Every structure is written in C-alpha cells, then in structure tokens.
Amino acid sequence: MLKRYLRALTSGDDSLAEWAAAGIGLLPEEQHPAAVSALQALLEDPAEDRRWWALRALSEIQADNVPPLLITALQDPSPEVRQCAALALRMQRAVQALPALLEALQDPDPLTALLAAEALAALGEPAVAPLLELVTHSPQAVRLLAIRALAEIRDPQTIPALFAALDDESMLIEYWANEGLERLGVGMAFFKP
User: Fold this and answer.
1) DSSP strand E in 42-112: where?
2) How confident is the model over 67-83, as pLDDT tens digits?
3) pTM for this model (two decimals)
C-alpha cells in the first residue's frame, strides 16, 4: 500500500496526493520507518511540489525521526516548502524544533514567519520564556509574532509582558497584547473606571 500512496503523492494531482498523505498517516506503525525513509528521499527531489507533499505526508506520522526532517525543511529555498514545514511542526508539536521555529520568525516570507509563530504557540509553555525575550529584544515584526504567539498560549507568566505591550507604538502589538490579556481573563479588570 505504501508504494501506491507514494505514486499518488507524486502524481501531480493534488486531490490524489492529499488522499495519499492522509493514508500514509494511517499506515500501521511497523510501516512508519519505510514511509519516513521514502519521504526523506523525496525531500531531496529538485521538484518543489514533491518536497512539499513529502512534508505534508510526514506531518501525519508521529515518529521521533520526523521532527528533524521538518526542522531541516525550514531552510528550504522555496517559501512554500518552508511554510509546509512550519505547518507540519505545528501539527507535530516537537519541542526540539523550538530554536528553529524562533529563527523562522525572521523568515523573509511573512507567511512562513506567521506559521512558525503558530507552531510556537502550539508548543505552549516551553516557548514562553524565549518568546518573552523576543518581545523585548527584537525588531517590530518579530515582536508582533511573539506577542501573538504568547496571546495564544495563555500562560499567566506572560501577563506583565502583555501589559507592557499595551503601550507599544504598534497598534497590532497593542491589539494582540489586549487579546492575550482577555484570553487570560484579566483584560480591563485591573483598570478602575
């Protein structure tokens, strides 16, 4: 069945490839090593589309050797492949990807950077301390992504940074700081009318 899925994955037909990616994720665990090996080989393919679909399929496999492949793909020359890698890391929630995802917040492709922020938010508490550091020591675009991720994490230790960000010159940073405080249930409760 794996060979059939791999043929469909590289067929050039997106609906067939999506079926194959989902099917690879449903393979019995004993077939995961062969699937990961075949998909890893596709990550070296010169065709961007094949690398993209290999990552999409890898996102469905929960195995220790998958996150390193996704992390490496964050350096792919293609923005679309990097986007897929960041999205796959969000699905995998691999703490080992934390440094690479933090670096990807500075990706020249804005969608890749946003997807990296969402993957960091999915990691939850392990991402809080490094994101708090970025909020105070980064360019505005990275600070915005960090505040947004912190707002989604909803960790009480972020409250002081979120309050401080309410005074930021960026309306978007202010918005996400307020959103984070609202999600934590503290919002405007600390302000007297």
Assistant:
1) none
2) 999 999 999 999 999 99
3) 0.91
